[in-house]
Specification:
56% of the residues lie in helices and 7% in strands. The chain is an alpha/beta fold.
């Protein structure tokens, strides 16, 4: 295991202050992070639970958090391997000069993919912590990602309606959320909320589903009895709930991509991409000429 290299030298002294089970926990977390980075602590936790390294309980999650903080502080695990996707700074965009700005303009150009699509698609996500994984895929297809952080507000629903009306074509929402009382009920609330505004899009819960829980033997949490929706959920599915984070990352990424491509006219998308490439070349030529004029003016 590559991690052994990091345990040599300066790390050896640090190791002596830890119990063997903590060191094993860090080794297992390292092995998971080696396959894909960055990940959230929650994702690492559920992968460890799925591998039966730790039990699925809050005390074990806290133990993992503490161990990985120390491992990063000591340089055993790189800081960049674990990210906090919720507490993201809002950085103001700035450029050194006009030429730098022109480079940004050139790479930022995207042609509207929905011009020749038969329907308009959005991906809606319950959990902000997974938004980075989702956006890296949805942006490839020009698909808007909406993060609800639970139930969507009425303001967010109204903004969605305005987007849908602007497109003036059938709408499909691909929804991803936890398999628990709230995660299942959000789809109902979303449908009823949009119906209030006179919009009835197709809404498909892509994940997490009971089939996923069974197929991948996902680690369950017991349903919170205080949730007002718990009784109905338990009656239908039983007393187990699973977070979307528990789904293996490669499976989740493939599910996102597949669900989008199944709804898109891929031939039409390729036509738009070809047009975009030609127009970007035209933009590049125009920017080159503009740079020359700016350079002449600066001199």
């Amino acid at each position: 295991m590559k991690m052994r290299y990091h345990f040599e030298g300066k790390a050896r002294r640090w190791m002596m202050g830890f119990q063997k089970k903590t060191l094993r926990l860090i080794e297992e977390a390292y092995a998971i992070l080696e396959t894909h980075t960055p990940m959230t602590l929650r994702q690492v936790y559920y992968q460890l639970v799925a591998r039966h390294v730790i039990d699925n309980k809050q005390s074990e999650y806290k133990r993992l958090c503490n161990a990985l903080v120390k491992a990063r502080q000591e340089g055993i695990i790189p800081w960049a391997w674990i990210e906090d996707r919720v507490r993201q700074p809002r950085v103001v965009s700035m450029w050194d000069n006009l030429e730098d700005f022109m480079d940004t303009v050139q790479h930022a150009y995207r042609k509207d993919v929905w011009v020749n699509q038969p329907q308009y698609i959005e991906v809606w996500l319950e959990k902000d912590a997974l938004s980075g994984i989702f956006y890296s895929i949805t942006r490839e297809y020009g698909v808007t990602l909406v993060v609800g952080r639970g139930y969507n507000s009425w303001s967010a629903l109204r903004e969605a309606v305005l987007r849908f009306e602007k497109r003036d074509k059938p709408v499909c929402i691909l929804y991803f959320g936890d398999f628990d009382p709230s995660g299942e009920d959000i789809v109902r609330a979303l449908r009823e909320g949009l119906d209030f505004f006179g919009i009835s899009p197709e809404i498909e819960k892509v994940a997490l589903t009971l089939d996923d829980v069974i197929a991948y033997d996902l680690p369950p949490d017991f349903t919170k009895k205080t949730d007002t929706r718990a009784a109905k959920f338990i009656e239908r599915y039983g007393d187990r709930a699973v977070e979307l984070d528990a789904l293996p990352l490669p499976v989740l990424q493939q599910r996102i991509r597949q669900s989008i491509e199944e709804k898109l006219d891929m031939k039409a998308l390729e036509e738009i991409r070809a047009m975009e490439e030609k127009e970007r070349e035209m933009l590049t030529m125009a920017l080159v000429q503009q740079r020359e004029e700016i350079g002449s003016w600066a001199n």
